[in-house]
Structure formats: C-alpha cells, structure tokens
Amino acid sequence: MPATDYQGSSPASLTHFGRALFSLRREQVHSISMEGSSFEAEMESFQQHVTDRFLELSSVAHDDLLSLSWVGKLLDCFLSCQEEFRAIVCAQKTQSLRPPLDRMVTDYFDRSVKALDVCNAIRDGIEQIRQWQKLLEIVVYALGNQRSIGEGQFRRARKALADLAIGMLDDKDSNASMANRNRSFSRNTGYKDHHHSHSHGHSHSSGSGYHHRSLGHFRSLSWSVSRTWSAAKQLQAIGNSINPPKANDLVASNGIAMTLFIMNSVLLFVMWALVAAIPCQDRGLHVHFTIPRNFSWAAALLSLHERIMEESKKRDRKNSCGLLREIHQIEKCARSMNELSDSVIFPLTEDKEREVKQIVQDVSQVCDALKDGLDPLERQVRQVFHKIVRSRTEGIDSLGRPTYAE
C-alpha cells in the first residue's frame, strides 16, 4: 500500500493500525496452532481407543477367549478402528499425497487387499462349521426326542458322527475341496452395482464409473482362493515389512506414520486371529509381530497373541482344524458320543440312557450356540470385507487425483 495513504494520519491511528495487524497475525498463528493441536488430539484419541478395545478383548476369561462372541467383538474392534483411521487419513489428505506418507498409505491399502482373500476363506470356514452343526442336529434329533432309544436311532447317530469326523479332518485335500466352493462376498452385488450405475444421469456416470471399475477390480482379486492358496503365506504377506516408524518418518508425516503402524498391526492381528479360530486352507499361526512393548496399545495385543499361541500348543488342540471354542466343544461332544456308542448294549439300561441323554443335551447346547453365533459372525466378516473395499477405493481415488501442484 502506498505510503502517501497515511501522510495525513495521526500517530495514534498508526499505533492502532499496528496493533490490529499484530492481533490479526497472532490470531492466524493461534488458529494454525489450534488446528495442529486438534489433529494431535485425534491421533492420541485413536491410540487410546485401540488400547481400550484390546484391553477389553484381553480381559476375557480363559473359557471365553476365541469364542464366537469374542471373535465378534474382535471384528467390531477392527471396524471401529478402521473408521477412525479413515477419518484421520482423509482429514490430512494433502499430507497423505506427499512423501513419505503417500508410500505408507499405499502400503497399507496393499496389505488390506491381501486381507480380502482371508475374509473369503473365513467365510468358507464358517460354512464348513454350519455343515458340522447340521450333523450334530441329526444326532440330537435321533437320540434326544425319543422316549426310549433303540438300535436304529443309535445307528443313525453313529452315521452322522462318522460324517462329522470325516468333515473335521484338517488335511490338504479337504481344505482344497473347500477352496473350490469359495465365493467372494462382493460376487452377488454385481447386478446392484450395474443397476445403480445406470440409474444415475449422464453427468454422474464418469465419477461412478471409477467407483464401479474399482469394485470390479476387487472382484477379480478376491473372487475365490485357488487350490494352492495358503492362509499361512497370506498372513506372512500381510505382515511383511510392518515395522515401527523411524523418527524422521514420524517428523515428516506429522505423526501419522504411527497411526499407520498401529492400523497395520491391528489388521495383521485380526486376520491372524481369524485364521487361528476358523477352519481355512493351510492354516499357519507362526507370524512375527514386531511391536515394541512400550507402546501403550501393544501390551494387550501381544498378550492376546501369546495366549492364543499357548492354546494352539495344547495337546488336545494341536491337530484341531480351528481354535474356536465352539469347535473344541464339537470335538469333545463327538468324542464322548463315540466312546459311549462303542460300549452300549441294547436294550439300554436306565443309567446308560441317562448318560446318553446328558451327552445329547451337551450336543444340543453346542448346536444352539452355533445357531445363534454363526450368522452374526458371517455378517461381521462381510462388513469387514466391504469396509476394506470402500476404504481402499476412497484412498486410491484420493491418491490418484491430487488437489495441489508440486
């Protein structure tokens, strides 16, 4: 502004103008500082949320660990963490487009794609458990609703138990046959996506076209798992190069690198726990977690990892097709029923009949637990699948369309 504009101004007016200018600059600096403080608070809140959720998961009693309800809580934990993580990354969109954060965000999305096949394999495992449930229901129907138990009812129950034993064999052939029936969660949404894209006007078609092409890309990646697909190798691929961020990366990313490390670790643990609990192809639990224990959220997560590994090493769980509590209950009930059926002599004595009915009652309780828990669990796995797809689609869309010039 030309100096002549102020030639007629009094010293008092110049002083007032200087104070106003200083006040404006101070408010701008304060605004930037407040914005930074708010973002730091969001990241701290995210870390605290992860800590609280895993403390809750690790506080369960031994008998409840790896139960259907516990696995459901684990997936709830992932979904809420993923949503908070997405909000943090979206809030720092410009920062996420610059090195080194752009590479870190892309790495996370690449890991999440690998998790989609795990979700598909877990869905097949849930379906496999449903088949076992149906066989147990045959046992309950044959032996539980009879005034007197005869040889014919026992023969039918034995046949169901024999089929159950075959179905629970955890070998490569049975796992490979399951893979052939695998279908992606998004497979049945093709018509909806197609119809949705044509129901909008021409002006919207270019934007939605990118979205639908991205979903189509995911279908091609996760349509099914092949005969040679391995859950163990997939977990290794997800966990590859997950390391705590270096100091210079933390500084360059304004701390977001730590948020990414946390989310990578949560993703790996959740997928690992699913593979540990649910039958799937070529299960393997030897995954290394490179998480320093001094992180507030790490202690509970690593404690859960140790407890699950200890469970997998127990004598009666080593050869199990899954560490899910309800699978263990199926195995125990089937073992008890088989031992009993080998020793029965007809007609049954009253004591032997009471023993049979007690075991049948135990089997019935397992059936009820499966009936109540499998459907909600499958819905949650489907939610995880679609949440990963949507988050990555949004992320790639953002990274592929920069809003600033370098």
TrEMBL record:
UniProt-listed InterPro entries: ROH1-like
Main location (coarse class): membrane
Topology in membrane: Single-pass membrane protein
Keywords assigned by UniProt, alphabetized: Membrane, Transmembrane, Transmembrane helix
Compositionally biased region (Polar residues): 175-189
Transmembrane segment boundaries: 256-278
The keyword Membrane appears for this protein: yes
Annotated localization: Membrane
Sequence ranges of Basic residues compositional bias: 193-203
UniProt name for this protein: Protein BYPASS-related
Organism taxonomic ancestry: Eukaryota, Viridiplantae, Streptophyta, Embryophyta, Tracheophyta
A GO CC term attached to the entry: membrane
Family in the record: Belongs to the ROH1 family.
Annotated stretches, region: Disordered: 175-211
ATP-binding listed as a keyword: no
